[in-house]
Amino acid sequence: MSMQPPTRSPSQSASLFAHWGIFLAEGIILLLLGCVAILVPLLAGLATTVFLGWLFLFAGIIGLVATFRTRGAPGFTWALVSAILALVAGIALIWHPLQGLYSLTLLLAAFFVVDGILMIALAVSHRRGLSGRWEWMLANGIVDLILAVVIVSGLPGSALWAIGVIVGIDLVFGGAALIAMALAARREG
Prior knowledge:
This protein has 7 helices and no strands. The chain is mostly helical. The protein has one domain (22-188). Helix 2 runs antiparallel to helix 7 and helix 5 (97-125) packs antiparallel against helix 6 (134-153). It is globular and about 55 Å long.
């Protein structure tokens, strides 16, 4: 098994070089948005909650229209229930964003618990085959569990910052990755 990085075709390299400025601009914008989200996590958390609310609302409306247009198809009742659930979730998140933020924070903590346990189990099961690398999976699982404990032990206050900070960190890392890629493409071109 080769450990060499995949090679790019000349056209891919040329395209990366030609558009490096766009990738750089996107990276800078994502980095700045991430910093804002980290500095004002409540605002970022509420924005995320309301955005998800609108997504669910539109999904529910589209689901209702599609369900009633295909009334004779199998599973009509289940499709109807699913569409109504999406609609109700969307309305609840939009009209009660603070409560929605609290619910999303609980869901995030539950995700960290489940993902942490699964990553630890995966690390232990791959301990022999991934010698020297399985520790990173184990560390990932432990960090997930620590994050869950921090979030749950800080409730209800952690609901005011957890989603915003995590979205912000994701945006910062995504922006930094795009900046690094853009600068590398510029150098290679």
